[in-house]
Amino acid sequence: MKEHDVFPWWAGYFLLNPVRKKNLNPEEILKDYIKPGMKIIDAGCAMGFFSLPLAELTGDGGKVISIDPQKRMLDVLKKRAYKAGLSSVIDARTCSFDSLMVGDLRGQVDLAFVFGVLHEARDKEKFVTEICSTLKADATFIFGEPHVVSEDEFQGSLKIIIKSGFFIERTIRKGKNKIAVMHR
Asked: What is the pTM of this model?
């Protein structure tokens, strides 16, 4: 990702707007795929709109690795996690614009959640390869894009993930948001 192409950190507060939850409710989307104790990656987590619900669903025995290249986004996420009593579940990590920096997680992750970020990646194939390297053999990959991403671009990104060995179990449309739940 190039820094100037990334959603600005200060606009992350707009993503936390409670009205957004009416159209894109994290618990409703994720509850069927998260089990207590899971290890989950939330790549491009911003201020944690999805990270906190993921942490609540996986519980104290689980871990949500929340990754973002913008330290200010992660600072807000950490404060929100502390206030919600979820600091022990959320591992907030800064990545670079060229790498997710997840080499230490090879083959350990049960579920990857990637929403609203792949369209910002400088190298989508590298991004997907890095995510896939962290996943266990039977892992779930939930990928989504917001309304600002065209259907063609969404489908192109899906093809990259499918090339990595995933098949689509289900697609979900929430408003103009597009989401695919995939498995190996």
From this structure: 0.91
